[in-house]
Specification:
Layout: E1 11-15, H1 23-39, E2 43-47, H2 54-60, E3 64-67, H3 78-86, H4 95-102, H5 104-113, E4 121-124, H6 130-137, E5 141-145, E6 155-157, H7 160-170, E7 177-181, E8 187-193, E9 196-197, E10 201-204, H8 212-216, E11 222-224, H9 231-247, E12 253-260, E13 266-272, H10 282-288, H11 294-303
Helix pairs in contact: 1-11
């Protein structure tokens, strides 16, 4: 589906900001998208749910929404459900896919069910669980809130004392804490737009891991696109990434993150349904390899609001 005339989109609400821990990044993403759409003649307007949401949408007479909200409330099915209730079509994944992808444990369970490898993991409900988990998985480990994005609350731990400290940090952000095996190896990401997997990116950071600072602040993070993998290997991994994406009921556009272990096998980490669209972001970088500038990418993503989302449901 390709729209040629901006008027076919009607009046567009660009949802940005919100209440999550990723509010600042969402404002950057949303502002970039808003500029791109306006530059192409789209009747686009900023809407920040923190400043009023349902009344603004209802009174504004909007025809569709571009979701540029990251994290809880915007990427977990909540705003998608509200838009469904209001009858306003929107970009990207629906209620089901958004909720699943924001839940790292459910996402990993679906990876496994579809024959995809993911780091070994346990859900820690209390401090009492940690000793058992450490014995089963061994060190090093990754500790993260089960429902946060942008590596917020993520820590690498090498011993039991550090595990307890990391758990104490993560549990302040989420009552469910994911503890998983640490994979030593290169990290890759695959952007997906419609039915196409874009050229993969290999991420290289001098930090201990690809954390919030490396993602959004550091100028020392290196992104390699083309990623350097042999063509046949990248093609096979692209198929696996699409499997991971659809297994989690994601739709429209998004990003799949994975690592290669010391055997060269891919270990899938998560699916992002509303990846960042900032100066440091990965989806625009991958799109450039296909000749898409940022403005065209924003247009293509907005087109996902015009197609079927949930199985059996029409936009």
């Amino acid at each position: 589906l390709q729209i040629k005339d901006a008027s076919q989109f009607g009046k567009v609400a660009v949802l940005m900001g919100g209440w999550s821990a990723e509010r600042d990044i969402s404002l950057l993403t949303g502002s970039a998208v808003l500029r791109a759409l306006l530059a192409q003649g789209v009747d686009a307007h900023k809407i920040d749910p923190q400043e009023g949401f349902q009344r603004a949408l209802l009174d504004g007479g909007f025809d569709r929404a571009f979701i540029a909200l990251h994290g809880r409330g915007g990427e977990d099915g909540t705003v998608q459900g509200a838009l469904e209730f209001l009858g306003i079509p929107y970009t990207g994944s629906g209620v089901l896919g958004s909720a699943i992808c924001m839940d790292k444990v459910r996402c990993k369970q679906l990876f496994e069910a579809h024959g995809l490898q993911t780091p070994g993991y346990f859900l820690a409900a209390s401090l009492a669980d940690l000793e058992h988990i450490a014995t089963r998985l061994g060190f090093p480990l990754a500790v993260k809130p089960a429902h946060e994005g942008s590596s917020i609350g993520l820590n690498k731990v090498d011993d039991f004392a550090a595990l307890k400290e990391a758990y104490a940090v993560a549990v302040t952000l989420d009552s469910q804490v994911l503890v998983e095996q640490w994979i030593d190896g290169p990290e890759y990401t695959a952007a997906i737009l419609g039915e196409r997997v874009l050229p993969m990116i290999r991420i290289e950071t001098p930090n201990l891991f690809y954390d919030y600072e490396a993602k959004y602040v550091s100028e020392d993070t290196r992104f390699h696109c083309p990623c350097g993998l042999p063509g046949d290997v990248e093609e096979r991994l692209a198929e696996d990434c699409m499997t991971a994406f659809t297994a989690a009921s994601a739709r429209g556009w998004g990003r799949v993150d994975f690592m290669l272990d010391d055997t060269g096998a891919a270990s899938f980490l998560e699916v992002n349904t509303v990846p960042g669209l900032t100066s440091h972001s990965l989806v625009p970088m991958a799109a450039r390899q296909l000749g898409y500038g940022f403005d065209e990418l924003a247009w293509r993503i907005l087109e996902t609001s015009l197609v079927e989302n949930e199985p059996g449901g029409e936009r």
